[in-house]
Amino acid sequence: MDLVIRTFDGEEFGKLKLFDSVFGLDPREDLLHRVVRWQLARRRQGTHQTQSRADVLRTGAKMYKQKGTGRARHSSAHAPQFRGGGKAHGPVVRSHAHNLPKKVRALGIRHALSAKVRTNNLIIVDEFNIKEAKTKLLAASFVKLGFENALLVGGKKIDVNFSRAASNIPNIDVLPVQGINVYDILRHGKLVLSKSAVEALEERFK
Quick one: average pLDDT of 106-125? Predict the structure, then answer.
């Protein structure tokens, strides 16, 4: 398939032929769900923890004598049923990460790219390059291209002026091509790729 390449002035710069093996797949929701779940699980800190009966600070003496009270037998006040006792089966510090094969991760990116093409939410620009780090000028260029919420993926290195100007615009994220991921692609309305990013992705997934 062919897509039009545009400049940040909104003008046509030419056309680019996209590989169907990368941008022309039939998106699978189950596959995208697996990859997003894997990404978000890796991001979780897992630092939640409650005090068990071994952690609470209370006296270790027997609460009351074993016999003669008519009450149940109890020894430690650390037990979960008592006020101030430990929490039973509470959360502990752990990693929520799980394994996902590299081939599935790579396939997830290809399906996410294809989903943006299928919904006409993929824009290709010539290059991410501006003369001055002026947020107002860059925001005006985004309006010409017709998006307010987008993930912009450039080449291996992002122009410093472009990155600084874009960092002040809400709902706009800029990544180098090696940082592209399924979650960020799907959570933004538009996906904007530079010509060099398209070439790098096709070389990576060919």
Answer: 95
191: Cβ–Cβ under 8 A, 6 or more apart, which residues?
A: 113, 116, 121, 122, 123, 150, 151, 153, 185
d(CA 36, CA 15): 32
Helix, strand, coil % (nearest 5) of the chain?
Answer: 35, 15, 50
Tell me the C-alpha distance between 85 and 17, whole Å.
67
What per-residue confidence (pLDDT) applies to 102? 95
CB–CB of 59/79 below 8 Å? no
* Residue 151 identity: L
Report if pTM > 0.85: no
Count the alpha carbons within 13 Å of 122 in the hemisphere toward its beta carbon. Answer: 24
